[in-house]
Amino acid sequence: MINQSINIKKKKQKTISTEEVWLPEPVATETTDNNMIQKDILSYSLLFLLEQLNPKERAVFILKEAFDYKHEEIADVLSYSVANSRKLLSRARSKVRSGDQNPDNILAARTNSKLIEKYLKSIRNRDVETLQTLLADDVALYADGRDTINVVQQMCNGKTDVSELLIFAYQKFQQSQTDKTAVVNHQTALLFYEDRQLRACQVYHFDESRQHITRICNILDPEKLKNMDLSLTSRHVLNRLVVLITTHNH
């Protein structure tokens, strides 16, 4: 639904800005203070919570918050009324801010390390065949470098194109970097460091079987990565949570 909406707007505008690929700032959720209220962590975990919205809410939320569509545009491409678009956005924002944590999702995130190890090994060895067995047929890769980092491609679909792009990007940019698995936004992730500085954070989404990667969110924007500290305290996260909510309220 979302991709269809973007395609419609592409036809109207002929071109689409690379700035329209937007990913939330990553948060390390495996080492945050245990005393921190879970709903506060989840309110910060937009990637995780978006999966809990129904398709209509998710479509309106992403088109508005990520792609900065006006309600009139959303109503046009989704065949909704402007009033309905506003109502769906309000409902989606409410869920994002007050969603409850699902322990099964966190547990699953911690058990995906073997698949990620196999995934990374296949990329290192340029083993396209093995890599493609780990990717869903319609896997999507999103890259957010904002204005400061030039990325090879902002969005890529299909396991053939995605696997080729992953291997190319690794051999060209990440081969000399140090990688580390982590749990980010309550999902399995890989962190890439160079000279002890975080250069990239890749967050993975899996199908229900937990055997295939369905989406890869590659955060490269230095502004979003600079606060990615695995030794975060609850106060630091809460302060950033207030900033995020305040920003979205405006």
TrEMBL record:
It comes from the Bacteria. GO terms for molecular function: DNA binding; sigma factor activity. Residues 46-95 form the RNA polymerase sigma factor 70 region 4 type domain. InterPro entries: ECF_Sigma-70_Domain, NTF2-like_dom_sf, RNA_pol_sigma70_r4_t2, RNA_pol_sigma_r3/r4-like, WH-like_DNA-bd_sf. GO terms for biological process: DNA-templated transcription initiation. This is RNA polymerase sigma-70 factor, ECF subfamily. It comes from Fodinibius roseus.
